[in-house]
Write a structure and sequence with these properties.
Blueprint (H helix, E strand, L loop, with lengths): L8 E5 L23 H10 L4 E4 L11 H14 L7 E5 L5 H13 L4 E4 L10 H15 L5 E6 L1 H4 L5 H10 L4 E6 L4 H11 L4 E4 L5 H6 L4 E4 L2 H16 L5 H14 L5 H13 L15 H12 L1
Parallel strand pairs: 1-2, 1-8, 2-3, 3-4, 4-5, 5-6, 6-7, 7-8
Helix pairs in contact: 2-3, 3-4, 4-6, 9-10
């Protein structure tokens, strides 16, 4: 298809590499594992992903300071020349407007292709008017005219999200810079409503693997998901088949089963890191508190459920 947005495609909501989990009883260290970055990027690209989102929910984004985010964003940029065509998105939303502006400017200064921005999630009673002003200032001060911002719609975690009217107002005010949304509402009715109202004029990247085909049928142009860390090849096949005019229902059914199997073991970061270690020989990365490691016994159970 020739009418797709430049950011259309399948993205991994990448885990954040942190130093290997210490033996039980040892002092916890959740520093960034920068040496592991190139292997993770190569693996995601080889699995079929068009790109990766850093510091999303799966990447434990809100757990990292602006300085830590800068360190990893710079480190990843160093390796992107090894992966021609692989796109990079950065999660830059915080409850602080000034911090979000600084992080967004940084991402574009480093050559990232786009940013994915949470609404200011501490302020759960913010109105559409307040959110419009917040995003307007962010876009005006930090997003170049030829770059793209996606609003991150995940009301179950953020406590607030994007109404259709707010999306329309932002799109009208910033038709290029406000590209669209990452839809992690897990709500098929919302996905259909967005597609009906905006069609292909709005870039929607789906955040729920089990709804991917449904989202594509409702004018979504790709996905950013946690499961793409493990099944990027299947998600890419769904995307390719749909855009070729073929039916990806069989693959979608398998993906839905895999997603549902792992939904019993949330939050995803420790689960995905354990499976990346067991299935793909990645280091046994830890997670940052308040998330907790999972036991070896639970790891085995998760692996059994996922593979079955």
């Amino acid at each position: 298809m020739t009418d797709l947005h430049p950011l259309a495609g399948v993205y991994a909501a990448a885990v954040t590499p942190l130093l290997e989990a210490p033996p039980k009883g040892s002092k916890h260290d959740s520093s960034l594992d920068l040496e592991a970055v190139p292997a993770l990027l190569r693996y995601l690209a080889a699995s079929g992903c068009h790109g990766a989102l850093l510091f999303g929910t799966t990447g434990e984004g809100p757990s990292f300071s602006p300085k830590e985010r800068e360190v990893l964003l710079r480190s990843v940029r160093v390796y992107r020349h090894q992966l021609p065509g692989f796109k990079l998105l950065a999660g830059t939303g915080t409850p602080s407007l000034s911090e979000s502006i600084e992080l967004t400017k940084l991402a574009f200064d480093l050559g990232y292709d786009g940013v994915v921005v949470l609404p200011p999630y501490y302020f759960r009673k913010a109105t559409d008017e307040g959110l419009f002003k917040w995003f307007s200032e962010l876009i005006t001060k930090a997003v170049p005219a030829n770059k793209y911002l996606l609003g991150y719609h995940i009301p179950s975690a953020a406590g607030i999200g994007f109404s259709l009217d707010l999306i329309a107002r932002l799109k009208d005010a910033f038709p290029n810079q406000f590209a669209g949304i990452k839809d992690s509402s897990h709500d098929e009715a919302f996905s259909a409503a967005v597609g009906q109202r905006f069609g292909k004029d709005l870039l929607v990247l789906n955040g729920t693997d089990s709804h991917f085909h449904h989202a594509l049928k409702n004018h979504a142009q790709g996905a950013i998901t946690a499961m793409a860390n493990l099944i990027g090849n299947d998600l890419r096949d769904i995307w390719d088949l749909y855009n070729e005019g073929k039916d990806p229902s069989e693959i979608q059914a398998r993906v839905a089963k895999q997603r549902h199997a792992l939904e019993k073991y949330t939050p995803f970061p420790p689960t995905l890191k354990a499976l990346l270690h067991k299935l793909h020989d990645m280091p046994r990365w830890t997670v940052r508190p308040p998330l907790e490691e999972i036991s070896p016994e639970l790891e085995d159970q998760i692996l059994q459920d996922f593979e079955s």
